[in-house]
Amino acid sequence: MPLIWRVLGTNAAVLVVALAVLVFSPATVSSSPRAMEVVVLVAGLAGMLALDYLLLRRAFAPLERLTDFARGVDPLRPGDRAQAGEAVEPQVADATRAVNEMIERLETERRDSARDALAAQEAERIRIARELHDEVGQTLTAVVLQLERSARELRDAPVQRAHVEEARELARTAAEEVREIARRLRPEALDDLGIASALVSLATQSARHAGVRVAHEIDPQLPPLDDDAELVVYRVAQEALTNVARHSGADAARLRLAPAPPASPGGPPSEVVLTVSDRGRGFDPAALAGGGERGIRGMRERAVLAAGRLELESAPGEGTTVRLTVPVARGPRA
């Protein structure tokens, strides 16, 4: 039944009941109403309003549930859809479908815009990494070579030679840091060897530069991922390990990449799960703010790009676990 007719029918039923009470009950109202008659009329009116409220609340309950759902939609947690339920009015079912279609469009548009933004960001990373390596890095290497020649020429001036050698070591350190920054901006292993080798390299770099030992476990039977999904997995792992080094206080972490259990026994896996965990100080996710919030939000936005989902588990004193789930490639990769 259309909602408008249901509301009209509810109000009509209440009025019919009130009319029947007035017609068939012995209650009467004097031309000069007495106090008791006023009390009866007020009580009757209150009863009619209460009955009308209960009936209308039941009629509008599906719309209230739809409103609550729409208010709780989180664009960084895609996939949720409103459920109309059974035996609902056509208008409610239509409104539910319209809300779901709107959410689908918004998620698609957000995913497309995020993909464009990420592509632009990665292109800029590649450009900066290339310039750092080819220009700044080469310039610093030339400075190191020049200082080495100057040091050899100052054999008879030990004090000046010591200053030149100190400057040479500073220049060499700067050149190594520039190359490391270039590698972090765009990991060559990801382009050349794939996500498994890139994550192993990332774990090694974390141990060497951040002092965090990373026990890595990469499933050898890993199903193929799209290029976007591989990039998202790498960046989320990179951000998660950076957070371990900066905030957890832990000196060890665990990184695992493996297929998710298949939906049907014996079937192929449809998702891949990245897990980065530590046993550090942990935190309350509900109280997260500032830079940490931006870091988590960035990981969630990347997960949306790959049509995946990001889960964060942490509590003070109990460590932190970041879990990213992304779908496998739909077809053979080029």
Automatic annotation (TrEMBL):
Its EC number is 2.7.13.3. Its main location: membrane. Keywords: ATP-binding, Coiled coil, Kinase, Membrane, Nucleotide-binding, Phosphoprotein, Transferase, Transmembrane, Transmembrane helix, Two-component regulatory system. One of its GO terms (molecular function) is protein dimerization activity. The chain crosses the membrane at residues 12-29, 35-56. Residues 127-330 form the Histidine kinase domain. Residues 57-111 form the HAMP domain. One of its GO terms (cellular component) is membrane. It comes from the Bacteria. This is histidine kinase. It comes from Conexibacter woesei (strain DSM 14684 / CCUG 47730 / CIP 108061 / JCM 11494 / NBRC 100937 / ID131577). The lineage of its organism: Bacteria, Bacillati, Actinomycetota, Thermoleophilia, Solirubrobacterales.
